[in-house]
Design brief:
heterodimer, A: 110 residues, mainly beta, 6-stranded mixed β-sheet, 11 strands, globular, B: 114 residues, 4-stranded antiparallel β-sheet, 51% strand
Chain lengths: 110, 114
Amino acid sequence: TQLLEQSPQFLSIQEGENLTVYCNSSSVFSSLQWYRQEPGEGPVLLVTVVTGGEVKKLKRLTFQFGDARKDSSLHITAAQPGDTGLYLCAGRFGNEKLTFGTGTRLTIIP
Amino acid sequence: NAGVTQTPKFQVLKTGQSMTLQCAQDMNHEYMSWYRQDPGMGLRLIHYSVGAGITDQGEVPNGYNVSRSTTEDFPLRLLSAAPSQTSVYFCASSYSLSLRYGYTFGSGTRLTVV
């Protein structure tokens, strides 16, 4: 079983601050996705990255795939209370099904 | 589009009872799967299906059965509920397992076994 490690496990910051969360593996991903999950709901897909070094932006969220395709980061600029949630990374190794990390639980304090 | 619909939303069972969690999708997705989510454990794959009539085991299949008679439906059966099966269960579907396709999740079933 391939493992994905996410850090930090918990993060609580003030509204307006910037933050970065990380997703790491010892193996090479064939692709990586980020999901956000709100309380009482299922995860919702934010982005898919496939190419090493790829950067994608979704409004105030910036996703980066490591050059070696073993890690990824999610940066949020000027965090807002609506960004609160559980952020999950999910990676594919070869042609396998998605493997999910344990998540970063983010709380934005108004 | 309804997406992925799970029922019931909440359920309490007594140890030893059986039940079926329902999952239906209206997106003509070939791939469907069941996960359980427990604190600190992330999403763990129970069973999955790559098409009607085809199912396979995931990471934690013991105590659960599935079948896929149609493209739309993928029910999860608990044969004899145990307290260790207390969890939140999510059904997810995808057009395919190709690199660029993500999963669409249902809103979950919170199951408590007493």
